[in-house]
Amino acid sequence: MNKDLPHIGIDIPEDVPDEFLELISNDVKAPGLNIEFRKHSQGVMMAALDWVVPTAIAAYIFKPYFEAFLKEAGKDHYNVLKKWLKKFVDNGRAIKVHRVTATQSPNKLNKEDSQSKAVSLYIQSKSGQKIKLLFDNDLTQQDWDQAIDSIMDLAKDNYENFPNDKLTTETEKFDYRTFIYAVIDRKTKQFVFYDDNDLLRIHKEENINGSS
């Protein structure tokens, strides 16, 4: 395990004032909690494939939170964190993202894709897998909140009961070196897990169907 990892990481655009960073982290702060902000240029938003575009803001819950901090802070902070994540993600709904593609490849953007390019949540599992929760703009805020509860509970169970936990069962088929994407099924509101190859295939199929 990388001992330099913070408990929580937050990606934010470089033009966001430091005073705002202090404001958005106040509700989740606790003694001993290490929060790291990483500012990025809007240029990182320019990517060829919708699924792998970094969102404008993102929250990361790293292994040290579950393995060290949560054991010390207990359930109270875990509930605080889930409440804060819902507020953080809800604020992301208001962010308008202009998607850009190369002029010579105007069809690279999937117009049918409703996954938010404004906000995302990343969880690092006990085995080190990085799981990105995608938020569908066509779903309600209640759906988003329930998804946050579900992914956090899966992560907590993963650290407490690994390898005999549901998250491991759902994701063990994937290469641990790749990103895993948790997509909220619109009908069941349950997660469907994909890796990069799955989403690249879906992206290609949707673009082909959309242009036919």
Description:
There is one protein chain. Mean pLDDT is 82; it is low at 44-51 and 98-111. The chain is globular and about 45 Å long. Helix 3 packs antiparallel against helix 4 (141-161). Helix content is 38%, strand content 18%. By secondary structure, the protein is an alpha/beta fold. A hairpin with a 5-residue loop joins strand 4 (119-124) and strand 5. It has one domain (8-211). The chain has a seven-stranded mixed sheet with strand order 2-1-3-4-5-6-7.
Counted beta strands? 7
Tell me roughly what share of residues is in helical segments.
Answer: 25-40%
The shape is globular
Question: What value does the average pLDDT take?
Answer: 82
- Structurally, the number of domains stands at 1
- In the predicted model, the low-confidence regions spanning at least 5 consecutive residues are 44-51, 98-111
What structural class results from the helix and strand content?
Answer: alpha/beta
N-to-C series of helices and strands: EHEEHHEEHHEEH
How are the strands of the largest sheet arranged? 2-1-3-4-5-6-7
Beta-strand content estimate: 15-25%
Tell me about the largest β-sheet: 7 strands, mixed
What is the count of DSSP helices, taking H or I runs of 4+ residues?
6
C-alpha Rg, in Å?
A: 17 Å
Alpha-carbon distance between the two ends: 48 Å
